[in-house]
Amino acid sequence: MSRPASSKPADPAMAAHVLACVDEARGIYELLFPTQRLQFVLSLGSDPLWARPEVIEGAYVPRPQDLGADYLGTVIRPGSRPDAPEVTVRLAIPRPPLPSELKQSDAPWRPIRRLGALFGASPLAYEGLRHQAEMLRKRREERRQTKVALPLGDGSDLIDRPAAPATQHRPAILIGMHWLEMGGAEKLGFDTVTWALAAGLRVFVVASVPAIQRLADRLPDHPDVAFIRLDRYLPHKLWPRYVAQLALTENIRAVHIHHCTPLYESLPMLRMHLPWLQAIDSTHIVEYANGGYPRISGVWSNFLDLQHVISRDLVDYLQGGFHTPPGQVVLGRMRDRDAGVASLPPLRFQPGQTTLHVSFVGRLYYQKRPVVVVEILRALAGWAQKNGVAFTATMVGDGPFDGTITRLLRRYGLTDTVAQMPGQADIPALLGRSDILLLPSNNEGLALVCYEAVAQGCIPISTRVGSQGELLPEDLLVPLAPRASVKATVAAVDRMWRDADVLARHKAGLQEAWTRLSADPTAEEILMPVYRRIAQGDAA
Amino acid sequence: MSVLNRTAAVIVTFNRSAKLMKVLDALQAQTLRPDIILVVDNASTDDTAALVAARGTEDPSIRHLRLPKNLGGAGGFHAGMKAAYQMGAQYFWISDDDAYPEPGAIAALHDALTGFQTQHGWRPSFACSRVDWIDGTLCEMNCPRPVWDWARFVRADAPWVLVDSCSFVSVMIPRWAITEHGLPIAEYFIWFDDAEYTRRIARSYPGLFVPESVVIHDTPDNRGVNFGLIDAKSLWKFRYGARNEASWRRRQGGLLSVLAYAYGVRGQMKRAGIPGRFRRDIYLALIKGYGFRPEIERVTSE
């Protein structure tokens, strides 16, 4: 029996995907606009991450482009009364991601077109040029940046302040993350979800950056944890209204911001209409270009109740730069109390040893400078050959530099020496059999992987960035300039290999720093009491 | 994988009304009929316009796009796909006016495109049929080119081979491929427009050869495309073919690729003893191709 193609039933898998997306989006907008007449104009999108939402408040006259080739249909949610105002939401339903996008959604890295030949001739020279440009940008930004916290008035007692309404719901917390992908800040975000849940709070999680959110399945599978896909369906300008509405509906008593810009932008709304709500943030790294999230945190200092940081450097940055009250900025290290000094194993590296295994662990993005890692491995391979040391290495991580790294390793004849592993590799096991961990990043806070390395008996060598100096002795910190990074790393390994005293000094330095850091409170120790108080209905 | 399945057939024709009517008959008999049948008429001087108009009164899915002059197959496919895109089609079945699809041909291509993505997650950039000649043997000029790992997803119940190039004889292209990669190059006029286009869209992901979808290509003879087959009658087409492929090779691989191609063409002509005056014409076309740099036209849906 012949039938036109358009009458062919929808593919069941795709139909299920579309309907699930529509339900997710409806959930968000029906909460945001509880009484309005809602009209969803739906089309099939070509983007796997983002629904390109467009929200029009007031009467809407459909345009031809609403009914284009990809038009799916219009869903109406009646208003609470016949004359309810109308809100139209245009959404392009994201398509399911392709297998390649599930693995890596960023395009493979390529050198800048005009400098492609330079990279071909000397990757290190290219990196050097890029480094210089970055430092120039940093100097310019430092001159331009203002470090002033936005003022926040207390209001007058003449005017009544809003009070928290009575509610049947148990207290909840809103945890805003950058995204649910691999990363140190994200690791803390996931930990805070677990801690908040353990403290008795219901937990709502949102992310600001549209992404596959590959780690969403690592959120606790618990009825009190909900991941709301604002990243896909809600424009940033509507976040403050949504957050306020969610807070009122779900008895949210606190927001905890982990590198989530639209939640910072929601703070004026919360301070004006929900002043009882506690605002906490956690920050990690001062970025070169614009100060990054610590600067944003500093600017919003007066709107925040608690600013959690992971290093002393950041305490100084916020208190010195933004005059934040001492009690408001709290240090909480990103480590487990269980991994304390008692369990620190001896560091493995020995003078004159005949084998050397070096590891790199990190996402293959420019921040980690994977090209410099390869150059260091190349130089170390040369050093090992000269000194009769059997050299091997492992690079762990995924990212846009994947292909570049593979090609460089092939070009340098290192494919037999250097193993490449995906990001899901068993990191503790790898560090447990590595002598040296390389971290030549162009920026770090206090890298979690350095803690892990020391805890597994592996010596980290890092660039002198962020707060790395709080854990690593001076001689294990190398300059940031790429060529100098390479030379200094090889020199550091050489010194430890030749000179037992130097090695002993480094080991003692690491041990001492480890002990000192162990005395500091952990993030869990700082945040759990706060969460418990919020769960009991008290202020943070 | 789609919830929208509106499909347009784009058939380019020039002065072959009888064969074209057989193609329209074959489309009527499809188990999955195209929603739109767009006949792109390259300014035919026979009774094509009248016959298509008459068919159109019986079958509202038939549309007649008459071009002001003969733009060749390439210009016809370019104009037809552009028009069908504006008509909102999600799938484009592209074919010649002398290729008769078996009743299940279009449904099989559709099922392969959607089924492959459901099973494996990847989006094939096209799906093409097995093209037989009128005696049931393989049509020599319409054999798709497999990729190196062509057998990766071949299964007994889904024997779809990964290919990166095919002819515009019964090939189905999804809308996203046209959105991302643009339209065929009209300036090619004839020959190699299909190979260039399918190779271009296959950069996103290869296409599928779908053997259960069969069309009969009613050509006068069953010959492949080889520069050893040049004669006075076919020389003009070979000139276009040499120019177009040289142009594409310059774009993709630069001068060395063009020289390698020219060397291969020379070998084919030499082995077949092609007369010097024909060879000279082909060499001139190759040189012309090196400087021939047509733009790729993009589409906009709004």
Automatic annotation (TrEMBL), chain A:
A single GO molecular function term of this UniProt record: glycosyltransferase activity
Domain Glycosyl transferase family: 358-499
Coiled-coil annotated residue ranges, if any: none
Bilayer-spanning residue ranges: none
Pfam families (UniProt xref): Glycos_transf_1
KW Secreted (keyword) present: no
Gene3D superfamilies (UniProt xref): Glycogen Phosphorylase B (3.40.50.2000)
Annotated keywords: Transferase
Signal sequence region: none
Superkingdom as given in the UniProt entry: Bacteria
Protein name: Glycosyltransferase family 4 protein
UniProt organism field: Paracoccus gahaiensis
Lineage: Bacteria, Pseudomonadati, Pseudomonadota, Alphaproteobacteria, Rhodobacterales
UniProtKB/TrEMBL annotation, chain B:
CDD domains the record matches: GT_2_like_b
Domain Glycosyltransferase 2-like intervals: 10-112
Transmembrane annotation, as ranges: none
Molecular-function GO terms, alphabetical: glycosyltransferase activity
SUPFAM superfamilies assigned: Nucleotide-diphospho-sugar transferases
One Pfam entry name: Glycos_transf_2
Keywords recorded for this protein, A-Z: Glycosyltransferase, Transferase
Protein family: Belongs to the glycosyltransferase 2 family.
Record's protein name: Glycosyltransferase
Record organism: Paracoccus gahaiensis
